[in-house]
Design a protein that fits this description.
Strand order of the largest sheet: 3-4-5-6-7-8
Number of helices: 16
Number of domains: 3
Structural class: alpha/beta
Distance between the termini: 54 Å
Number of strands: 10
Oligomer: single chain
């Protein structure tokens, strides 16, 4: 069969029932299959958003073109806000004033080996942040962060650095099917060991946790053994995405013999059950001496860290935003059975650097006062609505009142 390649001119979103047969294409993240463009997400691409604000072709994103001189000049301007006590700062400037860590890799992979080794864009940014003693966190699936020059850039940053490495399993065959193009587990875990040996905080990420897929006991025990050997003592978790239920995704799983619907309905569609299963899974890691956290609301009350990133002890609690739903849940939990109003929480946030923006405050208040949405605080185990006032709902925390356990008892 002769393949005919076409240059990608534009990308159009498809309906959920569009079926595309995926194939691996080395060093070519965009290609056509069945006359439909296919994109391999393990590539140097991004959407135009807050996360791409330092990239100078955000209108027609395509392959990321980043000028180090440009992002240095932008950051030079932003860093003038460091330590500022001015009111009404915009959200990014507000975050910089608090010296919140700059985070790389939330929406795309910054450390694709062949591209990054050639251009060194991420390395330039890491060294810039080290020179300016500004804290940094990285999210990645790459092993490149364990190379000597990257370890040195992290290690010499006096403000602190943490690297979160997504590794959903240690089973190489399983990963090859679910993460085609990503480095092997043995490569990632070696990179983690290099970082740990260099004194860098490494956080392993299992995101997503997928019951029936990556929770096999033998597989999990092997995973725990290997991350401990690599010096990793901190982990973050999340359940399967609520939005990833398209026919194309389901068909991709089916081609490898996986029952996607069985997993999805337990982990995502039945949110409380997915949260309960995730909590038990995290407890298994805790029993091995690993600190575990998540932003799954149901399990936030039991987090080993006040934030979901397992790094607040590294950077200091004051370096992070207190005006979010995770912080709201932890605040209520900390007050126990005492009645907690929105005003109580708002005062706490204002006393601790305030909300990043009015819009963000309004969103958190919305999630404080509703039920049933994916990120509303009513999903947190132990939180009980005990009344309301002019600002909305009033909450208390009862440790033994886990609605997820009660739901399960009703079923069985």
């Amino acid at each position: 069969m002769s393949l005919q390649w076409k240059k990608v001119q534009s990308v159009v979103l498809l309906e959920d029932d569009a079926e595309v047969f995926n194939i691996e294409v080395e060093d070519n993240p965009n290609y056509f299959a069945n006359n439909i463009v296919v994109h391999n997400c393990f590539a140097d691409f991004a959407r135009a958003s807050l996360y791409s604000s330092f990239f100078d072709n955000t209108k027609g994103m395509g392959m990321r073109v980043c000028s180090p001189d440009y992002f240095k000049s932008e950051l030079d301007a932003l860093f003038k806000h460091r330590g500022s006590k001015k009111e009404n700062l915009q959200d990014v400037a507000k975050a910089i004033s608090m010296e919140m860590p700059i985070r790389l890799g939330i929406r795309f992979e910054d450390f694709v080996r062949p591209v990054e080794k050639k251009h060194g864009i991420a390395l330039t940014l890491l060294n810039y942040l080290a020179d300016n003693e500004y804290p940094v966190m990285v999210n990645t699936k790459s092993d490149l962060v364990g190379d000597d020059e990257y370890v040195k850039a992290f290690a010499r940053n006096k403000a602190g650095a943490a690297v979160h490495v997504t590794m959903i399993s240690s089973d190489e065959a399983f990963l090859k099917e679910l993460e085609p193009g990503a480095p092997k587990f043995k490569e990632r875990i070696q990179g983690c060991k290099n970082l740990s040996d260099g004194g860098i905080r490494v956080v392993a990420r299992i995101e997503p946790f997928m019951v029936f897929f990556n929770d096999d006991k033998v597989m999990t025990d092997d995973y725990i053994e290997q991350i401990l050997a690599a010096g990793i003592r901190h982990m973050t978790f999340d359940s399967y995405s609520y939005s990833a239920a398209s026919t194309g995704v389901k068909n991709s799983f089916a081609r490898f013999g996986y029952d996607f619907e069985r997993m999805y309905y337990m982990m995502s569609q039945c949110q409380w059950l997915g949260s309960l299963l995730l909590g038990k899974y995290m407890d298994y890691f805790r029993a091995a001496g690993i600190e575990c956290s998540t932003f799954d609301a149901g399990n936030v009350p039991c987090n080993d860290d006040d934030i979901c990133c397992s790094v607040s002890d590294l950077f200091g609690r004051g370096k992070f935003c207190n005006g979010n739903t995770t912080a709201a849940i932890r605040f209520i939990v900390g007050r126990g059975e005492c009645k907690t109003t929105w005003s109580d929480f708002e005062n706490y946030v204002q006393e601790n650097n305030g909300f990043l923006s009015v819009a963000f405050k309004d969103e958190v208040r919305h999630l404080w006062n509703i039920s049933g949405e994916a990120f509303s605080i009513d999903h947190a185990a132990g939180l009980v609505c005990v009344g309301n006032d002019c600002d909305g709902l009033i909450w208390s925390y009862y440790k033994d009142n886990d609605f997820r356990e009660e739901m399960l008892k009703r079923i069985i």
